[in-house]
Design goal:
With about 110 residues, the protein is of the alpha+beta class. It has two domains: about 30 residues; about 70 residues, OB fold (Dihydrolipoamide Acetyltransferase, E2P) (Beta Barrel). The chain has two helices and five strands; from the N terminus they run αβββαββ. It is elongated. The N and C termini lie far apart (about 80 Å). The relative contact order is 0.19.
């Protein structure tokens, strides 16, 4: 075989192996998002970072009551939240990096 053709075959094999490894790693690192019902009281609203600090109620088996900053998916909902509002929402989490509230409803004790 000509020398240039052999180099081309080696280069092609190396690229294919790298692609296979990348696809395997990428599919193995897909994060599963989990959803939890959350109730709590709004402590602070941070429009600039699209977050709200919420004192959440006890979430048995997942989270004790605490103040925590959550991303609020819907910017319109966030703009209507006020300190002291009681809310019900769905907490979307992947365990470490994603802490987002969806379907936020102001209940104010209802």
């Amino acid at each position: 075989m000509p020398r240039g053709f052999t180099k081309w075959i080696y280069a092609t094999v190396i690229v294919l192996v790298c692609l296979i490894v990348w696809f395997a790693w990428h599919s193995a690192t897909k994060v599963e998002l989990k959803r939890y019902p959350l109730t709590g009281k709004v402590v602070t609203v941070h429009l600039e970072s699209q977050t709200a600090t919420v004192h959440n109620d006890n979430m048995p088996g997942f989270m004790e009551p605490m103040n925590m900053d959550y991303q609020v998916k819907d910017r319109d909902v966030l703009s209507k939240l006020k300190t002291g509002d009681t809310i019900h929402a769905t907490l979307v989490s992947e365990g470490h990096n994603v802490w987002q509230l969806e379907d936020v409803v102001v209940t104010n004790g209802k």
